[in-house]
Amino acid sequence: MEVRSHLRSILFTLLCISLVAPLSVFSHRSLGSNPCDRKTLPDPQSLRFDQLTVLINGYSESRIPLLHSIAATYAASSLVSSILVLWGNPSTSSQTLAELSRNLSILYSAGASITVHPQKSSSLNSRFLPRPSIKTRAVLICDDDIEVDPKSVDFAFRVWQSNPDRLVGFFARSHDLDLPRKTWIYTVHPDKYSIILTKFMILKNERLYSYSCGGGGSWERMRNVVEEMRNCEDILMNFVVADATGEGPTMVAAERVRDWGDPRNEGGERGEETKAGLSSVNRGGGEHRKRRGDCIREFHRILGRMPLRYSYGKVVNSVGEQGMCEKGGKLVLCDHQPLN
Ligand SMILES: *[C@@H]1O[C@H](CO)[C@@H](O)[C@H](O)[C@H]1NC(C)=O
């Protein structure tokens, strides 16, 4: 009798294990793949402050040679801890990706490690996913068609370090209110800006978490807008940061930036940009600008407020020019001084 009940309880236990085990494996897996699970991310206190992680968005196979040269430039910088190539084109064959990975790993000897990460979803939101492999506080988000001279990258990183709460970049745009039409628009102003583009954007690691996991139905709906519009993830990041800080971003002047996506590069004419920020103002024409305006309008409608803030002027890397100002007896960067 006793033996039989013992057996029964063993059988019952076995039954429970067999039922529960697959479930627990499943839930463990789905937890493990939840990018917003803080337990999977490094402790923010342990992140390095003296280097940055570069996330390059790659999509076009025809631009792979250019991607090579851009990755090589970053890999050679002592300020770069590692480079992640986020590959967003789902139709690229796994052979090509493996080859790309092999090719890029040769650059590893230059310093920073380089890895290729095929994106699980084609959503533009995934370029801002928090990632366990990012071990630095600073993250540089950039496109695969933007070449920047190494000195300017270093300078932009120094500027970010002096104010890590802000977005820092070379390419800036503006939101504005079109008064006659009573509507928000996307535009370029000669003397002020409120949006840093993801062509080149330095931000703190935690912003990836805020963007992707930020609480409340509003932010989730705004992320859905990005997904539906297949555009505007950079504008939304500017909303996230401005909403958290109440401040505008910081534009930095680069010595030499080459934007291969600029229409002036087409037809054999290569547009070399000296002085960043002026480039690709006309890119994509009116339709592109209109869609970006639609995003701003939609984000504002969902959030019920306009967090974007203007900044004025840009930070220049030369003492004696408008780059440095005297404030309270100390020489400091002339951050956000109005131009006039
Ligand atoms: C890898 O490098 C080889 C040799 O330079 C080149 O022919 C090939 O196109 C490269 N492939 C990729 C995907 O980078």
Automatic annotation (TrEMBL):
GO terms for molecular function: glycosyltransferase activity. Residues 52-318 form the Glycosyl transferase domain. GO terms for cellular component: membrane. Keywords: Disulfide bond, Signal, Transferase. Coiled coil: none annotated. Residues 1-22 form the signal peptide. It holds the Pfam family Glyco_transf_64. It comes from the Eukaryota. InterPro entries: GT64, GT64_dom, Nucleotide-diphossugar_trans. Residues 260-275 have a biased composition (Basic and acidic residues). Residues 260-290 are annotated as: Disordered. Belongs to the glycosyltransferase 64 family. This is Glycosyl transferase 64 domain-containing protein.
